[in-house]
Design goal:
- The protein folds into 2 domains: about 150 residues, Rossmann fold (3-Layer(aba) Sandwich), CATH 3.40.50.1860; about 110 residues, Rossmann fold, CATH 3.40.50.
- It has a 6-stranded parallel β-sheet with strand order 4-3-1-2-9-10, with helices on both faces. Strands 6-5-7-8 form a 4-stranded parallel β-sheet, with helices on both faces.
- Helix 11 links the parallel strand 9 and strand 10.
- By secondary structure, the chain is α/β, with parallel strands linked by helices.
- It is built from 11 helices and 10 strands.
Length: about 280
């Protein structure tokens, strides 16, 4: 029987965007093993009702838990906004983390002025999860959230820097800074957005801090695993990575290679069915 600290970490997202979180996790925790599940058959989650997203999240989490994991990472902002607490209750005492809380705490810590801009998808902005999390962490913070739906398409097409990406970033961001010149922190509230960091930096200049929720989530996972004594230690080679998708392994591999930061082909992607059995 496997020791708890040797079990993999489970990570799920609606598609490929969460691979930026997996990338950060692997960099921060190179000895750990990971199972990543992209629910590509039902993406995007951002346009679905909260009840549907919660149902999908429970199914994805149960699929990972049944494979034997020690920790669950919700690498999807929409799912994090509705499913963190229900999944914590359902799978206790196994630790569960989403991307919103770590990103919000890091954004508050980074901001000297207390003026923070959040870039996210329409669903995440409309739900107000980052606004609430930031207000909880820093009650006097001033938060403005901007939906940047085209960023998702840019990221998936690989148009992550250059004139097109910068022009669209200007359309989304310029007005934020005109309305509030005191903004000093830009929080990336979608797992697709870190790959656009070069274009965003070109638009906002060097003085504004960019906070990536993927990196902050990886740091939070490392800290909790260490505290619980669940780190996989004593390994001299990187841990194994399993990639699973509910549809389209070819597209998952083609687009996902950019987000993961390394090339992989469809043969590395296991096609799975996570719908509940009847």
């Amino acid at each position: 029987m496997s020791q708890p600290n040797s079990l993999p970490i489970g990570v799920f997202d609606s598609g490929v965007g969460g691979l930026t979180v997996l990338r950060a996790l692997r960099q921060r925790l190179p000895a750990e093993q990971f199972i990543y599940l992209g629910d590509t058959a039902r993406l995007p989650y951002g346009t679905k009702s909260g009840a549907s997203v919660l149902r999908y999240s429970i199914q994805a989490a149960e699929f990972l838990v049944n494979q034997g994991i020690k920790y669950l990472v919700i690498a999807c902002n929409t799912a994090s906004s509705v499913a963190v607490e229900p999944l914590r209750q359902r799978f206790a005492p196994m630790p569960v983390i989403g991307v919103i809380e770590p990103g919000s705490i890091a954004g508050c810590a980074a901001s000297k002025s207390g003026h923070i801009a959040v870039l996210a998808t329409e669903g995440t902005v409309r739900g107000g999860a980052y606004q609430r999390a930031i207000a909880h962490a820093k009650p006097d913070a001033r938060v403005v959230a901007q939906a940047c739906s085209l960023f998702v398409a840019l990221a998936e097409e690989g148009w992550t820097e250059g004139a097109i990406a910068e022009a669209i970033a200007h359309r989304y961001i310029d007005e934020l800074f005109r309305n509030d010149p005191l903004i000093d922190t830009l929080l990336l509230g979608c797992t697709h957005f870190p790959v656009l960091a070069t274009a965003l930096r070109a638009v906002i200049g060097p003085s504004v801090t960019i906070v990536d929720s993927a990196e902050t989530t990886a740091n939070a996972v490392h800290a909790e695993l260490s505290e619980l004594g669940l780190l996989r230690t004593g390994e001299r080679v990187p841990g194994r990575m399993i990639l699973q998708a509910t549809d389209g392994p070819e597209r998952f591999a083609r687009v996902g290679s950019l987000f993961l930061g390394e090339a992989f082909d469809a043969g590395r992607v296991e096609l799975v069915d996570i719908s509940p059995t009847r």
